[in-house]
Amino acid sequence: MAETTQTTARNALDQPPSFKRRGLLFVLSSPSGAGKSTISRKLLADDPGLNMSVSATTRPPRPGEVDGRDYHFVDLARFREMTTDNQFLEWAHVFDHRYGTPRAPVEAMLEAGHDVLFDIDWQGAQQLHQLAGGDVVRVFILPPSMVELERRLRGRGTDSDDVIERRMARSHGEIAHWDSYDYVLVNDDAEACFAKVRTILHAERLKRSRQTGLIGFIRKLGRDD
After folding, report:
1. Where do the domains of the chain lie?
2. CATH number of 22-53+115-224
3. pTM, two decimal places
4. What average pLDDT does the chain have?
């Protein structure tokens, strides 16, 4: 019995400490059609500690989209009211519509100890970084080629030729901001790209700067000598 108790105590001491840490704001950006939405869905399905930030938008819902799940669909007057009341962490004007990240749900998720995933463009990523600095991790996903990007856009079957042409024209401007991101990946294989994004998320969670309980643990080690 004594031996069992000693073994249990040794096993407990061998367990690594669990530190509290600050939540992170994990941003995925890419030109439309390069794969960020697919990777976002896979990350959310794979990681229960990650919650999606649902943006508000003035654009109409696409077939199959659900209000509150895919976007918060609001009219222009309501969006302007939310902007005036400082209810957005970031917002941008894209393709004749406005998109913004509601502040309150994100703050509630961080308070509950969850990391927050953002599917936003480079403008939103810059605004978040200016606001939260080191708590923001920015990942930019590139297509393997512009020809492949256009093929993917046409394959979705959701946009007219005019909209696809506008998306392709905009994609060059988005790609020009690649160097403002922390990580840049090429999505030539969806599963391989997803695995890399997941690795980045796990590594960023382990950064020393986010382990808020680490200093106390180090001090305790000193007292134990």
Report:
1. 22-53+115-224
2. 3.40.50.300
3. 0.81
4. 87
